[in-house]
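Cont'd.
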Amino acid sequence: MTQTRRKFVASTVALGVGAAASAMPSTSAMKPYPKLVHHVFFWLKNPDSKEDLNKLLKGLRTLEKIETVKGVHIGVPASTEKRDVVDNSYHASELLFFDSVEGQNAYQVHPIHKKFVDDCSHLWEKVVVYDALAV
Amino acid sequence: MTQTRRKFVASTVALGVGAAASAMPSTSAMKPYPKLVHHVFFWLKNPDSKEDLNKLLKGLRTLEKIETVKGVHIGVPASTEKRDVVDNSYHASELLFFDSVEGQNAYQVHPIHKKFVDDCSHLWEKVVVYDALAV
C-alpha cells in the first residue's frame, strides 16, 4: 500500500504541532502529537435519550475553545468487533491533547470547563478519566 | 493568551490529515484527526518490572508501521491530579488513530500486530480497549 499521508506520533519532545515537523528526528515522516492525552468516557443517566446525548456532545464541543487544549476528538462507541477486552458500554468519549500536565491543570479550572460541568454533569452517572503522558 | 499554533479536531468528514486543512469548513484553524480512536490500556503482570514495561513499550512502537495506523501516542500514567474519576492504575497506554473501522479491522489481523501480541501478551494481565468514532 502506498503511504501518501503523513502519520502523526506522540513524542517526548515538548513541541507544538506547527513547529514539530522540522524538529523531529528525520527517521520518519511523522509529526508529534502533544505529549499529554486526557481521555474521558461518559455513561449517561438516560442511555436511551438522544436528547441527553446531544446535550452532552454539544457541551463537549465547547471545550476546544480553551487555550491549553491542543487537539480534540469527540466520539461515540465505534462498531468495531465485539471482544471481551473492548468496553463499548460508554455513551460519549472526549479525547483532548495538551502540551503538558500544567496545560491540563489550567483546563480543569478554566471557566469554559466549569460551565460545561455545571451545564452537563446532571446528564451522566459515571465518568472514567485516563491521563497518559507520551514516552 | 495568543493562539499561535494550529489546533486539531476530529471531524465527521473522512479526510486524511494532509488533505484536511483546505477541505474543512473555514470557521476555525482546526484540522481533523482521523475519525476512529483506538485506545488500549495495559496492566502488567509484574508492575514493578521496568524491564517488562520497556519490552511492552518497545513492542507498542512497532505498531506505527502498519499502513492503516494514521497516528500513534504511546504513554504511561501522567502525574495529573489524583481524583476519584481518574484511573491511573494502568501501566501503559496505546492510542492509535484510523480513518475507519475497516482500517482498524485490517490492523487487528496485520502480521506486525500479530507479532506484537505473540511477543508481548505474556507481559500483561489485563487489557481494556475503547474504540470511539468521531461525531
